[in-house]
Amino acid sequence: MIKYEKVTGDLRLDGQVAIVVGGAGGIGEATARMYAHKGAKVVIVDCKDNCNDVAQAIAKDYGTAALGIRCDVTSQESVDAMMEQVVETFGEVNVLAAMPGFVDLYRATDIEISSIEKHLAINAVGVFRVCQAVANQMIKQGKGGKIVCVTSQADFIAINKHVGYTMSKAALVGMIKVCALEWAEYGINVNGVAPTVVNTYMGERAWQGKVKTDMIEKIPAHRFAETDEIAAAVLFLSCPESNMITGEDLVVDGGFTIY
Predict the structure, then answer these.
(1) Which of 38, 173, 210, 251 is deepest in the core (most CB within 10 A)?
(2) 35, 62, 165, 186: which is the annotated catalytic residue?
(3) For the segment 73-132, what is each residue's pLDDT rounded down to a tens digit?
(4) DSSP code of residue 197
(5) Neighbours of 156 (CB within 10 A)
(6) 105 Cβ partners below 8 Å, 6+ apart?
(7) What are phi and psi of 98, to 5 degrees?
(8) Which residues pair with 249 in a beta bridge?
(9) Catalytic site residue 186?
(10) Which residues 6+ apart lie within 8 Å of 98 measured at CB?
């Protein structure tokens, strides 16, 4: 059962332990900083080598405990070791923000099957591997929890040269719905946040020149999103104020998909 808690509007996470997968930059780092600002202890998990640096910077900036762990979400051994270290350090896990990401741009006639498999391995199976590990820990704790996955507007609309990415993100939405259904009895909310193009390294890689200007013209807000705007949506779905929301995919796209 997902319990009712009086809604205060404070969006606080005081004392909560929050894992951010993909937290060493972009939307992930913005989310980790927002969590820390709201009182959470933060675990920066990423395949990059700067996890500890980001964690130390957040600890200094917000006066909270922070831990950095390098992890490969395509490896069960790596995810298991990450979880063991988190529980050993903080004793529990209350929030997971899962946003590892990979994109390789090819037309459907040209993309290699190996690229499709890599998209699925990171963006879908890898995310599930972490969600499963965290959910099992939350169930063991018996206090519920929040799981938020970053999906994409590409999970429900067609975007040129995004077939691998779209397949993986659509699979992720299906996963969110099933996990939300099965884990609600344990007090665990599972949701997604689906951004439009975001001003990150990955966004810049995919959208340049005329393709970029054409895309911006199609967005009613007439711009791409910033990382903190996506992090704010993730924060809401990570707080008690969103207890009655589960199995959803919150679109943050500046109006792009209202057409």
Answers:
(1) 251
(2) 165
(3) 999 999 999 999 999 999 999 999 999 989 999 999 999 999 999 999 999 999 999 999
(4) -
(5) 15
(6) 161, 162, 206
(7) -110, 115
(8) 192
(9) no
(10) 21, 22, 127, 130, 131, 147, 148, 149, 150
**Nearest-CA neighbor of 47 among 62, 63, 26?**
26
Say how far apart CA 207 and CA 160 lie, in whole Å: 11
Contact assessment for residue 223 and residue 197, using Cβ atoms and an 8 Å cutoff: no
117-123 contacts at long range (C-beta below 8 A, 24 or more positions apart) = 118/164, 119/164, 119/165, 119/167, 119/168, 120/164, 120/167, 120/168, 120/171, 121/74, 122/73, 122/74, 122/168, 123/165, 123/168, 123/169, 123/171, 123/172
Alpha carbons 71 and 8: distance in angstroms, whole number: 36
Distance between CA atoms of 26 and 40, rounded to whole angstroms? 19
Q: Distance between the two ends of the chain, CA-based, in angstroms?
A: 37
The whole model's pTM is what? 0.96
Contact 19, 96 (CB under 8 A): yes
96 forms bridges with which residues in the sheet?
Answer: 19, 147
